[in-house]
Amino acid sequence: MGTPWRKRKGIAGPGLPNLSCALVLQPRTQVGTMSPAIALAFLPLVVTLLVRYRHYFRLLVGTVLLRSLRDCLSGLRIEERAFSYVLTHALPGDPGHILTTLDHWSSHCEYLSHMGPVKGQILMRLVEEKAPACVLELGTYCGYSTLLIAQALPPGGRLLTVERDPRTAAVAEKLIRLAGFDEHMVELIVGSSEEVIPCLRTQYQLSRADLVLLIHRPRCYLRDLQLLEAHALLPAGGTVLADHVLFPGAPRFLQYAKSCGRYRCRLYHTGLPDFPAIKDGIAQLTYAGPG
């Protein structure tokens, strides 16, 4: 014979029901479920947001999700993969062809988050117009904007470019030398802008920067601009260019430049390379002097 079934005793007492029976008979409440009708009600809103912000969604997928996946699979960063492409497709000693190759790779392979040809034309035109004896670039990255400046410099011009990440700087150094620019013309400094700017006069013999390009982190633009002012590295009439002032944006930097009374400001409206629907801009500041 099988084991006889025994009824489990519940907790009971005077005036109290049997709790075991109450628990068995009580229906289980479902938690965290949503009615299909409610889900369908939100569907038009979700579709509208995806359509309206599809360019930002594509940018997010390309620059964060896919890039991280490729980094893990290849063991290389995006700028290292781009340089490998340049080595096999570009002409050494031809900075224009190297820049075109990077643009092609960014458009057809992986989005590089570089300055791009539209903004690049603005930068080159200003360098040619101003003919600066010395240019300071904060944020070398892969070296794209560095090559733009270097090929537009007047004879005897000098470019100092600062990159905080040693691994990224190593790639940029190779690209700059591949383009044919030596260390006398283009000097790459590895370090954070906050640490390098106070040392420019003593360690790198930079008494003034006729043109400054801010292209590193927009949240650091205001701090670095004030450091340049504090160390008297901006001459009267000098030019400061700042990229990405609208996306992701540098509102405090723009507010300071417009309100402090020491700059004349001009804004060039552009789009992101390969994402023209995402609006961005380059700010051009002309320094009037410390007074």
Automatic annotation (TrEMBL):
From the Swiss-Prot or TrEMBL record, state where the protein is found. Answer: Endoplasmic reticulum
One example of the protein's molecular function in GO is: catechol O-methyltransferase activity
Q: Which biological process terms from the Gene Ontology are attached to this UniProt entry?
A: developmental process; dopamine catabolic process; methylation; sensory perception of sound
- EC assignment: 2.1.1.6
GO CC annotation terms, alphabetical: endoplasmic reticulum
Q: Which UniProt keywords apply?
A: Catecholamine metabolism, Endoplasmic reticulum, Hearing, Membrane, Methyltransferase, Neurotransmitter degradation, S-adenosyl-L-methionine, Transferase, Transmembrane, Transmembrane helix
* Gene3D superfamilies, per database record: Vaccinia Virus protein VP39 (3.40.50.150)
| Superkingdom assignment | Eukaryota
Top EC class, one word: transferase
| Membrane-spanning residues | 33-51
| Keyword Transmembrane helix found | yes
Report if keyword Oxidoreductase is assigned.
Answer: no
Q: Which reaction does it catalyse?
A: a catechol + S-adenosyl-L-methionine = a guaiacol + S-adenosyl-L-homocysteine + H(+)
Alphabetized Pfam families for the sequence: Methyltransf_3
User: What family does the entry list?
Assistant: Belongs to the class I-like SAM-binding methyltransferase superfamily. Cation-dependent O-methyltransferase family.
Q: Function, please?
A: Catalyzes the O-methylation, and thereby the inactivation, of catecholamine neurotransmitters and catechol hormones. Required for auditory function. Component of the cochlear hair cell's mechanotransduction (MET) machinery. Involved in the assembly of the asymmetric tip-link MET complex. Required for transportation of TMC1 and TMC2 proteins into the mechanically sensitive stereocilia of the hair cells. The function in MET is independent of the enzymatic activity.
Entry-linked PANTHER family: CATECHOL O-METHYLTRANSFERASE 1-RELATED, TRANSMEMBRANE O-METHYLTRANSFERASE
Q: What is this protein called?
A: catechol O-methyltransferase
Q: What is the lineage of its organism?
A: Eukaryota, Metazoa, Chordata, Craniata, Vertebrata
